[in-house]
Design brief:
The complex is a heterodimer of chains A (about 260) and B (about 260). Chain A is α/β, with parallel strands linked by helices and about 260 residues long. Helices cover about 45% and strands about 10% of the residues of chain A. Chain A has helices spanning about 15-30, 50-65, 80-95, 115-125, 145-155, 170-175, 195-205, 220-230, 235-255; strands at about 5, 35-40, 70-75, 100-105, 125-130, 160-165, 185, 210. An 8-stranded parallel sheet of chain A has the order 1-2-3-4-5-6-7-8, sandwiched between helices. The chains are: A alpha/beta (about 260), B alpha/beta (about 260). The complex binds zinc ion (ZN).
């Protein structure tokens, strides 16, 4: 069973959300991926105003409309607009079809503005995904590092959080979130550098590692290689490829009355 | 499954991390397990060592002793070192190598400099394939004291035009080369690309809508990258059987003949 934590409509060919979704599913089928999580709309927007993230979420909801048996949506929010983000969370997750939250580079995730979003999302049992990178040449202005994630995780020790990209520079990223047992790492969206999955397993344990691709910018294949190519027990591979994500999503599906 | 030719593997030690395949026999086992029948091997020692003659000698010896018949050594040449011509001669005449591997960014020269044109000409005279590694790793994750930008390939299309005999394989290039530069390079019959850093949904299939499939070679960048990533990319794209075979092995085989 393979579930992919990290897909986008951007970077995929097609003029409409539906066309792009069909593309994603077609390639997912080729790679044996059963379910994909999709977030953010047709165009990248790193610091979206509320009307922008609403539109992006509408595009994802549209993309999901024929694919509820194959795909999950996460609501894209911007913590600079807390009130509007909370309302969007209600609209897309509590009252809509989405099951998670995506936070990107608009605001550092260590900031206090995140707290009410995390708490509300946790109440809904929504999966919380935060992009992180450690860039040696310096991050974008408000781009979070795994250390920001660690600070957030420390304030919400009982809320499961996902550290996007394992921080990119994974040897540092894994260390940064290692003490926080509520943080899992996302294997998506960086080069398939050998050793990442083995180190994550050694330092975090299999339950805290989740396969994702960052398709369409990345390929499903190159990122799956991180799991299929890793020298790890089969039991760990299963957890990483899908079982961990399934375990994280099940509670919200249960709340929504959705059975798999 | 027909045999694969992997044009992008590297022996010895990556300076920043131990790798599961950094012992030659372990790498060869992995390659053979996945039906690789030939792999073009450079050496990580070629990036930073000054005694590159001994690095190349070790590379040749490793391929011979542990390659189980599948490793072809591609020695490193650093044209900023005194008497690099002797390294080139040894690669060709002593070690009987089929080609060489260049790292202009790690060695500190630009492709517009005369030394590069001279090296290309000397390699062409000897009938050696030239592999040029555009990068080795994502520059965002490099060691803070060793930040090395990808090679600027801007001058390449013009240079290559003037060197009819050369066969040039660009390694780890397909996240860097895009648009107009890609088209100008593709227009040249002597330039080839490999798959290791190619990304995107169905990336191989998309690329060969832009460039001839005969220009594309299978490469993994193992052991620094998981070999399986390259392998799975062949599966992800919808390719007809002849295209798959060409990319998997035949294009490379034609080049090395
Ligand atoms: Zn992403």
């Amino acid at each position: 069973m393979i579930w992919d934590l990290h897909c986008h409509l951007s970077g995929v060919s097609g003029r409409t959300p539906d066309e792009r979704m069909a593309q994603l599913i077609e390639f997912a089928n080729r790679m044996g991926i059963e379910r994909i999580c999709v977030y953010m709309g047709m165009h990248w927007s790193s610091d979206p105003k509320p009307e922008d993230f609403r539109q992006q979420n509408d595009e994802v909801i549209q993309a999901l409309s024929h694919w509820h048996h194959r795909a999950f949506g996460f609501a894209y929010l911007n913590p600079k607009y807390v009130k509007e983000s909370l309302a969007e969370l209600d609209r897309c997750v509590r009252d809509g079809p989405m099951v998670g939250v995506k936070l990107w580079t608009a605001h550092r995730c260590s900031a206090s503005e995140l707290d009410s979003i995390v708490e509300r999302a946790a109440d809904m049992k929504a999966v919380i995904f935060q992009h992180t990178w450690f860039k040696v040449e310096g991050n974008l202005g408000n781009e979070s590092t795994p250390l920001d994630m660690a600070a957030l995780a420390g304030r919400h020790p009982n809320v499961p959080l996902i550290c996007g990209h394992t921080g990119g520079d994974w040897e540092k990223g894994i260390r940064a979130i290692r003490p926080h047992k509520n943080v899992s790492v996302d294997l998506a969206g960086f080069d398939p550098t050998a050793g990442v999955t083995e180190m994550a397993l050694r330092e975090l344990g299999a339950e805290r590692i989740i396969y994702g691709s960052d398709a369409g910018g990345r390929s499903f294949a190159s990122q799956l290689g991180k799991v299929f190519g890793a020298d790890i027990p089969e039991s760990a591979r299963k957890l990483i490829l899908g079982e961990n994500l399934r375990r994280m999503i099940l509670p919200i599906l249960k709340l929504k009355g959705v059975s798999l | 499954m027909t045999g694969l030719i992997d044009v992008n593997v590297t022996l010895s030690r990556w300076p920043f991390r131990r790798l599961r395949g950094d012992e030659t026999s372990a790498l060869v086992n992995k390659l053979r397990e996945h039906h690789v029948v030939q792999a073009w091997a450079g050496t990580f020692d070629g990036l930073l060592h000054k005694d590159i003659s001994s690095a190349n000698a070790r590379l040749a010896e490793e391929c011979h002793a542990h390659g189980r018949g599948i490793l072809l050594p591609f020695g490193s040449i650093n044209p900023t070192l005194p008497d690099w011509e002797e390294d080139l001669r040894r690669c060709h005449e002593v070690h009987k190598m089929r080609g060489i591997r260049l790292h202009p960014n790690y060695h500190g020269y630009r492709l517009g400099e005369p030394i590069f044109a001279k090296l290309l000409a000397a390699a062409a005279d000897r009938g050696l394939i030239v592999q040029l590694a555009v990068l080795m790793e994502d520059k965002r994750t490099q060691h803070p004291l060793l930040q090395i930008a990808p090679v600027d390939l801007g001058p390449l299309p013009e240079l290559i035009k003037q060197k009819p005999g050369i066969r040039l394989v660009l390694l780890n290039s397909l996240q860097v080369i895009r648009g107009d530069l890609l088209l100008r390079l593709v227009a040249n019959e002597q330039v080839f690309f490999e798959t290791a850093c190619l990304e995107g949904l169905g990336g191989i299939g998309k690329l060969i809508e832009q460039i001839y499939a005969r220009k594309l070679l299978f490469g993994s960048h193992a052991p620094l990258f998981y070999f399986e990533s390259a392998l799975l990319k062949l599966k992800e794209s919808v390719l007809d059987e002849s295209t798959r075979k060409a990319i998997s092995a035949e294009n490379a085989r034609r080049l090395v003949l």
